[in-house]
Structures are given as structure tokens and as C-alpha cells.
Design a protein that fits this description.
Layout lengths: L3 H22 L11 E2 H9 L3 H10 L7 E3 L4 E4 L1 H10 L1 E2 L2 E2 L10 E5 L8 H14 L4 E5 L5 H5 L11 H18 L17 H7 L8 E2 L5 E4 L8 H11 L8 H7 L8 E5 L6 H9 L2 E6 L3 H24 L1 H6 L10 E6 L7 H14 L12 H8 L14 H32 L3
Parallel strand pairs: 6-10, 6-11, 7-9, 7-10, 11-12
Antiparallel strand pairs: 1-3, 2-3, 4-5, 8-9
Helix pairs in contact: 5-16, 7-8, 7-10, 10-11
């Protein structure tokens, strides 16, 4: 006979092997580094100016970053830090190269769906990378215990307490004390204070806001990571909710993000697990915009339909059952998104089935379907296989046209995303919702 101890032993052995595999994956040196970018890339894909114009600007001002020469000595290559300095210091035809950034806090986007394999992490990773190359400061939050986004950002060893689970523990401690202090006589409070919670919750609850944020191999992308050990968060959260029935468990991440300085980031992107649970609900209630990737097949359509229904039902149940508790905790119910978008992924333009499914999506969801799908190319396929985005791939490792086609597909999707983001941002500021 075998019991829970066998499962725990199997888990321990697997985690040890998993760590070894990850170290091998990121060899040599374990630490992932962001590649440099050529003048051709910068001028065509970032600054939208002729390469010769950029070269002229660099020649006129030797105090500007000059990059490094590689290969035949003719092409110069620049780090993202150098590119951002050029953005700050250069103007072309009187126009700044800095991206438009409305006032207020960062915009928050949840990338979420039921179906595995539809490209949630690929979409989150590429949107984050594209926004960083566009000049924005980005925070990623990995809600998925598979931790693929975390690994793709160069983080290998992550402690459970530094994940979303840690944020939820910290929030439970803070909320327990807030609720206790709301009573004139604390002893009349029917709920526990933070010092009555489990010791592991208390220890994590003492962490500071910035302790959960980790740097990545991208200088302007930070991450709140995940790890395989955080898979128990759903079980643990249910236990904590039973301990403290007044805890608005779905608002942990929103409250945490409200503590960050408004100007620390511009865009915050959530990579969600393929399930409706404590983590995905936290992502939904913290998000301003909901991005739903879906593949071009019937099963993806079916899964997207189920996801919309179950997320809607779960949010309705919370709105009906947590009205006063949420209001006391500073949460407005019902939860409203600034926008909801459905993005087709793994799309093949010459595939009649994919075209038919796109028409079906648009027939049902109308303007909520993004106009620019992410096309399936060899570079896109490799981005998932090697945990390296198209933006991180060096075009010298493949034909330039293959790389360019993949990049342009993601660029079109990102440009539509940026327009959605800025429009929602502007509306929220006008209405006082942000």
C-alpha cells in the first residue's frame, strides 16, 4: 500500500531532477543574458527611421552610446540599456522616441484561458518583451505553477514564499489585523488576528512590498515569479479561507499592486494558470484588461466558451456573496474590465480551417476579436520550445526573412495591444477609475 508519503517522496526526487534539467537548459553559465540589437533592428523595428539617419545622429554626438562592432566590423550592436538612453536623448523631426505613457498607475493585463497549449505564456512573454523594446517598464506576474514565464525570464531557483502564494499569505495577515482593528473591542471579533494564523503564513506576512519582485535578464522587465512547489496554493488558500471567513481572498494581488508607486512600472502583465481558482481569480480582479488567447481549432473555441462562462459565473458569485466584505476591504463589486480581447494564436493564413474558425470567432465575438492573429512560423515554434521569444532570437541564426516574418506578426499584435491599452488607460483617467 502507498500513501501521501510516497507522493511526497516522488515529488522530492522529481524536484531534484527538475533542478538539474533547468541548470542544463540554461548552460553555459546558468544566468540568461539578453542579446544586443543591431542598428538595422533598432532603426526599422523600434525607432522607425532610416538606418543612415541614426548613424548620422550617432556620428554628430560622440557622447551618445555608440554600441559595439561585431562580425565584419561594419554592423554596430547595442544593449537595451543603450537603446533606452538613445530614446531619452534623441529626437527626430522634433518628436520624442519615448512611448506615450498616461498619468496614474500602471495598466494591468491578464492573459488567461482554460485550454493548455493555446499560447498564454508565449503571448504574455512576447507582449512583455515588445513593450520593453518599445520603451515601457514592465512587471510580469507568473500565476502558473508550471513557471514557464519565470524560466523564460532567466530565473531558475525560486522559493515558494516569493510567489503569488507569498503575496496571498501576506495579504491574509494584513487583512486579519485590519478586520480585527475595525472592532471597537478586538475580543469581540469572531475572526483570528495575524498572530493566530499558521507560523508559515506569519513568517511570509512579514515581507515587504518590494521583496516579491525579482529582476530578469531584461533590464526594464521585473517579475514576481512562480515555481513548481507553488502548485499547492489552491489547497492552501482554501485552508486559509476556512480559517478566516471574512478574508476577501480574491483581492490579494489587487491590494498588493495598489501598494506599488504609480511610476514604478508602466505595464503589468499576468500569466495565468489554465484553471479557474484562487490564483486566476486574483488575476482577474486585479486586471484592467483581459486578454484571452485561443488556438484556431474547435476544441480551443469550446474551451474559450467554457472559460468565459465559468469565469463569469465565479465573478458573479463573488459579487453576490462578498458585497460588504469587499467594500470594507476597498474592492468595488461587481468587477469591471476596461476591455476584453480575444487573440487568435498559432494561426496559418493559408489553412482553410483556421480561416473558417477565425470567421466563426468574429461572428460570435465581433470586435472583441483582435484583428491581428499571431501566425505560426518556425521562429514562433522555436520560441515556445526553447523558452526564448522571437525578440530574443538572433536573426543571424536563421534566414532573416523567417525571423522578420515572425517578428512582424508579433509586432502587429503588439501594436494592436498597445492601442487597446492606451485607449483603456485614457478612458479610465477620464472617468476617474484609475
Amino acid at each position: 500500500m502507498r500513501d501521501h508519503s510516497d507522493l511526497q517522496d516522488m515529488n522530492a526526487r522529481s524536484l531534484a531532477q527538475q533542478a538539474s534539467v533547468r541548470r542544463a537548459t540554461f548552460d553555459p553559465g546558468v544566468v540568461k543574458a539578453l542579446r544586443p540589437f543591431s542598428i538595422w533592428e533598432i532603426s526599422q523595428f523600434m525607432f522607425d527611421i532610416p538606418p543612415d539617419t541614426l548613424r548620422k545622429k550617432l556620428a554628430e554626438d560622440p557622447t551618445l552610446p555608440q554600441g559595439e562592432t561585431q562580425d565584419d566590423g561594419r554592423q554596430r550592436w547595442f544593449s537595451l540599456k543603450e537603446i533606452n538612453e538613445l530614446r531619452r536623448r534623441l529626437r527626430f523631426r522634433g518628436k520624442t522616441l519615448l512611448p506615450r505613457r498616461p498619468d496614474g498607475r500602471a495598466i494591468r493585463v491578464a492573459v488567461s484561458n482554460f485550454k493548455g497549449g493555446v499560447g498564454k505564456t508565449v503571448v504574455a512573454q512576447h507582449l512583455a518583451n515588445a513593450a520593453a523594446l518599445d520603451g515601457y517598464r514592465v512587471l510580469c506576474i507568473d500565476f502558473d505553477p508550471q513557471a514557464t514565464l519565470t524560466h523564460s525570464m532567466g530565473l531558475v531557483e525560486v522559493k515558494e514564499g516569493n510567489t503569488v502564494w507569498g503575496i496571498m499569505c501576506r495579504d491574509l495577515c494584513h487583512e486579519a489585523d485590519r478586520i480585527m482593528n475595525s472592532y471597537d473591542l478586538p475580543e469581540e471579533c469572531p475572526y483570528p488576528a495575524s498572530d493566530e494564523l499558521p507560523e508559515d503564513v506569519q513568517s511570509i506576512g512579514a515581507q515587504r512590498t518590494q521583496d516579491f519582485i525579482q529582476p530578469t535578464c531584461w533590464p526594464t522587465i521585473d517579475i514576481i515569479p512562480s515555481c513548481a512547489n507553488a502548485a499547492f496554493v489552491e489547497f492552501a488558500s482554501a485552508q486559509y479561507r476556512a480559517l478566516h471567513k471574512a478574508w476577501s481572498f480574491f483581492g490579494c494581488v489587487a491590494r498588493y499592486l495598489d501598494e506599488l508607486p504609480d511610476d514604478q512600472y508602466d505595464v503589468i502583465i499576468f500569466d495565468c494558470p489554465p484553471a479557474i481558482g484562487y490564483q486566476s481569480l486574483n488575476a482577474a480582479f486585479a486586471a484592467d484588461i483581459l486578454y484571452i488567447p485561443s488556438g484556431p481549432g474547435y476544441w480551443e473555441y469550446d474551451s474559450t466558451t467554457s472559460y468565459l462562462g465559468q469565469l463569469g459565473d465565479a465573478m458573479e458569485d463573488i459579487s453576490d456573496g462578498f458585497g460588504k466584505l469587499a467594500a470594507d476591504a476597498g474592492i468595488t463589486l461587481p468587477k469591471r474590465f476596461m476591455d476584453i480581447r480575444i487573440l487568435m494564436t498559432r494561426f496559418e493564413t493559408n489553412n482553410p480551417l483556421h480561416t473558417a474558425m477565425m470567421d466563426a470567432f468574429r461572428n460570435v465575438f465581433g470586435a472583441d476579436v483582435c484583428q491581428n492573429p499571431i501566425e505560426m512560423t518556425r521562429a514562433v515554434e522555436q520560441s515556445g520550445r526553447f523558452q526564448m521569444s522571437v525578440y530574443e532570437q538572433d536573426y543571424r541564426q536563421m534566414t532573416r526573412e523567417t525571423w522578420k516574418r515572425a517578428r512582424q506578426s508579433f509586432d502587429r499584435s503588439y501594436e494592436e495591444f498597445r492601442a487597446t491599452m492606451l485607449n483603456a488607460w485614457d478612458r479610465a483617467i477620464e472617468t476617474g477609475e484609475m
